[in-house]
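Each field is listed here:
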Amino acid sequence: MLKKILLISTVVVISLLVFFNWFKKDTKKHSPPATASYSNGNLKIDVNYCRPAAKGRIIFGDEEAGALQPYGKYWRMGANEASTFENNQSVWFNDKELAAGKYAIYAYPGAEKWVIAVNKDWDRWGAQEPDLSQEVLRTELAVNNEAPFQELFEISFSEADSIGNTHMILHWDREMIKVPISVK
């Protein structure tokens, strides 16, 4: 009897692992993975994320209006696993110092301002909010609600200015946020 229970348990666990891995791969068909990279001198930054599509939906707005991403609620800035930000040296991330490392990056969108946060808990799947005790910085930025329409969520970097500063640009639907990043 014990052998039978162990065999059934093993089959169930293996089946769940196979299903979960298939599910993770299947969802990436709908929100493909992407990387935004920036380098200037010794500084290298890579942002890995997945690109959900608007598909005619209300993306950002009030929960009562049926927005996919309601104002004031946690958003992983993409789809599937946590979006990651990796920098090889310390930088100023808007107005906060960010040490070299690999982090999860996420937002709390708002109608006029977004809160962007960076967290040590980067190896996560799904839309659950990370452990806030692992947060290393949180900063607030104005949002442009009248940007040109962008069907797929996109993260990019502006060209460096004369002293090597850039902006990480977050753009989806008609929302655009520019995060100033400079070498420390």
Observations:
- The chain has a mean pLDDT of 90.
